[in-house]
Amino acid sequence: MRALVISGGGSKGAFAGGVAQYLIEEKFRKYDILVGTSTGSLMISHLALNKIEKIKEVYTSVSQNSIFSIRPFVIKKTKYGGKEIAIDHFGVLRNFLRGSKTFGESYNLRKLIENTLTQTEFNELKSSLKDVVVTVSNLSLNQVEYKSIKDFEYQDFLDWIWISCNYIPFMSLVKKEGCEYADGGFGSMVPIEEAINRGATTVDVIILETEVTYYNRLPSKNVFSLLTNMHAYMLDRVEKQNIRIGKFVAGNHDAIINFYYTPTVLTTNSLIFDKTMMAKWWESGYQYAKQKNTDLNEIKAQET
User: How far apart are CA 222 and CA 105, in angstroms?
Assistant: First the structure.
């Protein structure tokens, strides 16, 4: 059985889409299991349905307003040409006055998910032999949970996709089934182990970070940039641990793992959704996967 695993990474998910498009359309990969975390959970249903152009349109046209119903930050350009976030005091205060536990809310993302994945598409996917699994973090029980499309009805599964993407405290904290849930990346950024435990013998893994760290983070400018830097540090640790565990489990199960990392640093803040940059990342993901597979073919040819 072959699995596709896509890590978390916010706006960098566009790169993963390009890689997956090449693997599915040019390498004719047929996936029995698709497991995603955060941004990965947003696209795996469409990839399983082979609706690649549809999810590409979403990733290359999305904006901040597509995600946030209450956006907790504003985006500012730095003197070096980059972008950074700063607190939106009015938006955050309004959210706290409403009794929210987070700085912002992401109900627009929930609407986008429902508008993108229809009931008909859900039914088609659920009745198929493919297993589509999203990762969520159960903060109440202090555990990672994996939600398969086989176990839920339409609205519930859309909730789990949405919950998998909720990067608290910037996005919504969701209470469901008596527990508080948040972004799956807090517990399992790269769920390789889960794919193998579900029977995968070959796993294509798209990781939305470089294989080697190429940069030092700039000093924090405000409380929001400090929080994002802190979250990024913790998630980087989780990611590396997930990869080590995945390799160990693969060795014990004689499974093969093919890794696809980003070759360069795409962004240092994946909460910024710039549709122009995301369109470029999608194309660069496609070209990267093409080049990587060309290089592998050349190596195999030389060995024979």
Answer: 20
